Amino acid sequence: MTTPRRVRGRLLADIRPLQESPAFRRLWATTSLSSIGGMMTSFALTLQVYELTRSSAAVGAIGLAQAVPVLAVGLLGGSFADAVDRRKLTLLTSGCLAAVSAAFAAQAFLGLGQVWLLYALAAVQAGLQAIDIPARRTFLPRLVPADRVAAGVALSQLSGYVSVLLGPVLAGVLTAAAGLRMCYLIDTLSFGAALYGLARLPAMAPGRSADRPGPRAVAEGLRFIRHHRVLAAAFLADIDAMVFGLPAALFPALNAARFGGAPQTLGLLTAALAAGGLLGSALSGPAARVSRQGRAMLVTVSVWGAAIAGFGLARTLWLALLMLAIGGAADTTSVIFRGTIVQVATPDEFRGRVTSVDYVVGSGVPRLGNFEAGVVASLTTPVISAVSGGLATILGALVLRLAVPALARYDASGAGAST
């Protein structure tokens, strides 16, 4: 007979990587703390730009300022992660990121009020993160056994969603009490934890066959992905979900048309995706035990598409929030599967470059998806944009299933990296 404790154990996130690997536990805890600080800076940056300009377009331009360096630097950064000690690389980039956060704090305390400076700092920060974050993600296979990688990816996802939900709340309270400049200061101080976690890691030296960093190494990494059909299809599945299915640009219009247009309601729509992602991460126990991650990824992408189509059709707020929460849970579960495929199927000498592609896809493509959703909505209606985008996502997953059967057959537990 299955006891309630066993049921909970099977549903909840697998915490064995935290229990078994002190290095991963330190890195996870300190990165989580620093990520909360990062979300506080993101909150403060958005608020400060709006207070200086009173322009939503100016606030939106923050994303553009961040997207350009991500696309320009991200792939090149991966070649460095494959050519140098990754621990030393992230210590350097994290130190530079701490300096950028200190610059944010300094301009706020000095009352400079220069929007161009905020854009410049945001761009530098995004460029550094495009090197730092992918390099950090390569640590996991060296810190935990292969059969714990999926659980480690799920725990990292859980940490990210906690930061997304908790960081802005803390930032709002702190801003109301002491001003937004304190958010920048707290973020700067939180880098102390991040640097401590990195300093306690073992060396992450590159393999003997590591390529010299640069455009040629980047091209080698892209060729590896192109010839590895499972990896290429996994990235295409995520592109399919984000380009066609991401609905965030439709929230204001649908909120105004169906749910009264109150800012509080708009906030609920935005939070529903993150809440679903947090729930999916917390209940990731079954996902961590799935061996055929490729097939499972196609299923969760289809669930995401169906949920977004359902959101477009929903006429009551509770149903819309439920659809978004389901979509958020499906999305984070899909990321767990994709992250596991990337980590297990990629040889260590290519892991930095492949992880950089993963980061660029995950960070840059959603912005294209928002643009696509907005364009379709302007040409038709927001409802048609959401429903058609969700259905197109499902169709894209079906096409990938038929075009790349190796993705559905992929079995990470048996290293079934069919190419």
| Straight-line distance between termini | 42 Å
Low confidence ranges: 415-419
Q: In one word, what is the shape?
A: globular
Overall domain count: 2
Strand content: under 5%
Quickly give the structural class.
Answer: mainly alpha
CATH superfamily of the largest domain: MFS general substrate transporter like domains
Task: Please give the count of helices.
Answer: 19
Mean pLDDT: 86
Total beta strand runs: 0
What would you note in describing this structure?
This protein is an all-alpha fold. It has 2 domains: 14-203, Growth Hormone, Chain: A, CATH 1.20.1250.20; 214-419, Up-down Bundle (Growth Hormone, Chain: A). The chain has 19 helices and no strands. The protein has helices at residues 4-11, 16-20, 22-53, 56-81, 86-110, 115-137, 140-143, 149-178, 181-199, 215-227, 229-245, 251-258, 263-282, 285-288, 293-313, 317-345, 348-379, 382-403, 405-409. The two termini are 42 Å apart. Residues 415-419 have low confidence and may be disordered.
Topology:
Elements (H helix, E strand, L loop, with lengths): L3 H8 L4 H5 L1 H32 L2 H26 L4 H25 L4 H23 L2 H4 L5 H30 L2 H19 L15 H13 L1 H17 L5 H8 L4 H20 L2 H4 L4 H21 L3 H29 L2 H32 L2 H22 L1 H5 L10
Helix pairs in contact: 3-4, 3-8, 3-9, 4-6, 4-10, 4-17, 5-6, 5-9, 6-17, 8-13, 8-16, 10-17, 11-15, 11-16, 11-17, 11-18, 13-16, 15-16, 15-18, 17-18
